[in-house]
């Protein structure tokens, strides 16, 4: 599964994209797994209310299941327009 | 429906004319254009726009389809840039056409409200030596509630 | 503020570009364009617009000043034609600029609502051999109440 | 005083503009004076709710006074835009 990061989430984690081999049950389980890795993940995921998540390029929730998902992305609230 | 996500600049006048020329039987055309504004007088202001290739196009398509289902529209155009933009450059534009002005206005406002908070773009503003990600504004999220 | 009442056609793209280029520090530009629409497919549709020279300019000026006092605007442009217009020709346009999109949209809608029912223009529509004065619509008068 | 007519009011009365020498007290008095002249005026002013009036190029009412007015115009509701 690909995990993508955008904007300041990307800057804090230091990479725009990485592959993970495990298949967490939910977005939240993936967040917990990433948080346990290194301080930079802990820093990026410190305040989940400041984050948005997309599963397979659709806006989703932190309790969404990940079975079958190919791509999960984390980013701050959008500021287009 | 014409949706473009691009790094290159676009010509507002040319795009507006071309959009209008494509319409048949439409009495009203509305355009909105977003411009990089100089935050303070004399301070050169630049902007970097990051986006999520793939998801961006899908999100814009979905927003445009929702507008089409809510109002009687002739057509919709959305152009949004990414990359580095300087002060006074055009960031994006939307255009809508309809037989009557209310539909064209409402649809354009709807497109802008959703594009702003639901399409995966992120702005970083630079003024002087500092650069910071633009924070989403509560009022932009609140704006979605009226639809 | 740029208000023009004229018989000659105007170029929507050129006017929109020129308006945008004149703005400084504005983040949002909204335009509305009214077009002569073909009422029925295949029926050539023409329009004659009569106006009240002298009063027209004053009325538009007053409406624009009212918009300027209600919203934070950078600029307003209004162009309205009179005389004979063919199907697909542009009747008029308004443009507004502001730092934020809500003001630009609101001001443009306000200008259109008041221009439609308070500026002395009268449309006569011709389709086939018949020509008739366009009746004012109750919903256009009602639209004024929201402001 | 100049009296101006626009759109179908102009068409019914047959002229775009005429001078009148009297000075009626109000717009309504002017309307009554015109109505008493000929059938075409009667036809044009048959339904006042379908008419609008401007005094010296400002939208006005039928009970507005006319002292000092140089120009009165009658027309149907506007249909610009």
TrEMBL record, chains A, D:
Protein name, as recorded: Molybdopterin synthase sulfur carrier subunit
Pfam families xref list: ThiS
Record organism: Roseovarius aestuarii
InterPro entries linked to this entry: Beta-grasp_dom_sf, Mopterin_synth/thiamin_S_b, ThiS/MoaD-like
Coiled-coil residue windows: none
CDD domains attached to this UniProt entry: Ubl_MoaD
TrEMBL record, chains B, C:
GO biological-process terms attached to the record: Mo-molybdopterin cofactor biosynthetic process
Reactions catalysed: 2 [molybdopterin-synthase sulfur-carrier protein]-C-terminal-Gly-aminoethanethioate + cyclic pyranopterin phosphate + H2O = molybdopterin + 2 [molybdopterin-synthase sulfur-carrier protein]-C-terminal Gly-Gly + 2 H(+)
Keyword Transferase among record annotations: yes
InterPro entries: MoaE_sf, Mopterin_biosynth_MoaE
GO molecular function: molybdopterin synthase activity
EC identifiers of the protein: 2.8.1.12
Pathway assignment: Cofactor biosynthesis; molybdopterin biosynthesis
Presence of keyword Magnesium: no
Pfam families tied to this protein: MoaE
Keywords: Molybdenum cofactor biosynthesis, Transferase
EC class name: transferase
Family that this chain belongs to: Belongs to the MoaE family.
Record text on subunit structure and interactions: Heterotetramer of 2 MoaD subunits and 2 MoaE subunits. Also stable as homodimer. The enzyme changes between these two forms during catalysis.
Protein function: Converts molybdopterin precursor Z into molybdopterin. This requires the incorporation of two sulfur atoms into precursor Z to generate a dithiolene group. The sulfur is provided by MoaD.
Protein known as: Molybdopterin synthase catalytic subunit
